[in-house]
Amino acid sequence: MPGVLPDGETVPVDGALPTTALREVGARGFGVYLHVPFCASRCGYCDFNTYTAAELGAGVSRASYADTVLAELALAARVLGDAPPPRVDTVFVGGGTPTLLPADDLARLLDGIDRTWGLAADAEVTTEANPESVTPQSLKTLRAAGYTRISLGMQSAAAGVLAVLDRTHRPGRAAEAAREARDAGFDHVNLDLIYGTPGERAEDFAASLDQVVAAGVDHVSAYALIVEDGTRLAARMRRGELPYPSDDVAADRYLAAEAALDAAGFSWYEVSNWARSEAARCRHNLLYWTGADWWGLGPGAHSHVGGVRWWNVKHPSAYAQRLAAGHSPGLAREILTPAEAHMEDVMLRLRLASGLPLDVLDDAGRAAAARALADGLLDPVAYPQGRAVLTLRGRLLADAVVRDLLP
């Protein structure tokens, strides 16, 4: 089931933000995240804020969801008020499975964002999708509506691995959907992989990488399996039905991904993300990683504007009820302290191929960076230029490097 939201101070009923947060909205970029919480079935590893029809219960309808989100969008416009309207640089529709909504609804939601704030002429507009939830016609409808990028949840090309993850698409369908998206005119197509699933063999992952490359996509995301408490997969492991993931296997898989993708013309730009060109990089995720602003629409969605972060109530029913009453769906918020903002800046920017400026570190942090350089974890070419950039070995140990650099 979905994980627990963090604690925080109460969000005002009208969603009002401190004046200080409104002064420079969008100065470092502005994006919109739109959460669609619906899934046809629940994958065994998933603890995202998503719901099957059986889990939703009575009173929640996919048919009315677009109208509910548009109500939050109207509230967002009131909250930002007289501040200079931000230009929307990126839109990311995530889930869940956004493409369980009719393509016309997804088009209407994008139009609502454009009418509210205005899409930049070169805006990146992404939707996530499951391979079995799109058709050539729905992809053409989305592309015509202004969607420029699609991210397909492939996870693996091996039937056994898909079964352990409770994925319902057949092996090969993700690559087919990727080709259909390119045929529909999508500028950029991503395939997501998960590695380290119990029972996955090295040759299974190699076959997945081969299929990704052959599909002709220009972006790949690859993540180690994380077993979250409360999921069906975690329960199976506690009962001894499946072994827990191995860190050594995960490292081997990561090295295999780097080798295969590099040979195919991809370059890493974030620890878990590779692109064929700079234009193929996910600009929305880069917006997150570089501390820009975004408004999160939908149940459980998180937002960040001017150093204020807040998150909406989780259940679609509670979300709809608050908006129907004219209230903000925000559950709680936090105002980041300078120390918290610095910690997140170091943690996120070090994961990027562009690296972290050494001058943002204190004396202890720079001393730790020098040790990481001596240990082969930081690039010796970038370091004299004033940047901490992870080596391949450093990427495998990224979390440990970050801990050492922070106070």
TrEMBL record:
It is found in: Cytoplasm. Gene3D superfamilies: Aldolase class I. CDD domains: Radical_SAM (cd01335). The keyword Glycosyltransferase does not apply. Coiled coil: none annotated. It comes from the Bacteria. Keywords: 4Fe-4S, Chaperone, Cytoplasm, Heme, Iron, Iron-sulfur, Metal-binding, S-adenosyl-L-methionine. Its main location: cytoplasm. SUPFAM superfamilies: Radical SAM enzymes. Residues 24-267 form the Radical SAM core domain. InterPro entries: Aldolase_TIM (IPR013785), Coproporphyrinogen-III_oxidase (IPR034505), Elp3/MiaA/NifB-like_rSAM (IPR006638), HemW-like (IPR004559), rSAM (IPR007197), rSAM_sf (IPR058240). Belongs to the anaerobic coproporphyrinogen-III oxidase family. HemW subfamily. Probably acts as a heme chaperone, transferring heme to an unknown acceptor. Binds one molecule of heme per monomer, possibly covalently. Binds 1 [4Fe-4S] cluster. The cluster is coordinated with 3 cysteines and an exchangeable S-adenosyl-L-methionine. This is Heme chaperone HemW. It comes from Micromonospora antibiotica. The lineage of its organism: Bacteria, Bacillati, Actinomycetota, Actinomycetes, Micromonosporales.
